[in-house]
Amino acid sequence: MISHTHFLLLVVAVTRAGCSGKDPVKTVDWYKENTPERLAVIEKCDANPGELATSPNCINAIAAANQITLDKKIEYKKRTPINLSGSK
């Protein structure tokens, strides 16, 4: 039979696990489409990297920012080349 102390500890543990207050995990694509939220999450992650750097939302928000930056650089490089030799 479970003692009163053990039962109380079990109830507290279950309650804390269910009410952790964690934000739902957003995808990289979601962060790419929601700039204000992406910037807010990255700011929170930068302010507390010791606790948040490995959280799924920090990783996804930073990955989204990196993909956006990379996409902009690749678009820039997709320009048609200039023909300087004069031949077609």
UniProtKB/TrEMBL annotation:
Q: Mind telling me which InterPro entries this protein's record contains?
A: Eex_IncN-like
- Protein name, UniProt field: IncQ plasmid conjugative transfer protein TraG
Which species does the entry assign this protein to?
Answer: Verminephrobacter aporrectodeae subsp. tuberculatae
